[in-house]
Amino acid sequence: MENCEQLCNGRPAEEEAACMAECQASTIERQPAAVRTYMEVLFCIVVPFFQLLAAALTYTFPIKGERLEAIYRGQADHFQVTAAVVGLTAAPEGRDDVVVLESARG
User: Fold this and answer.
1) Helix, strand, or coil (residue 26)
2) Scanning 44, 55, 62, 102, which has the fewest C-beta atoms within 10 Å of its C-beta?
């Protein structure tokens, strides 16, 4: 295997791009046929199978009820709206869910 970057380094930009493309193409062509077959099987069969399996399990065992409410409460605790995001220096009246950072107050 060749180090294409080292081989093509120091040439003019157009020539370096063509050299890199040619070097990478030749590197790919020298791979055994089993590598191509492995990649095709992996991306065309194995990955879609596991994606469908995840979708089926998500559909079959959905999160609901108290468990879902606990997740929502945890999200609310971790992802609060901050005034610094919208450029405010004080929380709007009646908005108890907005937290003003000390750095935003000046």
Assistant:
1) helix
2) 102
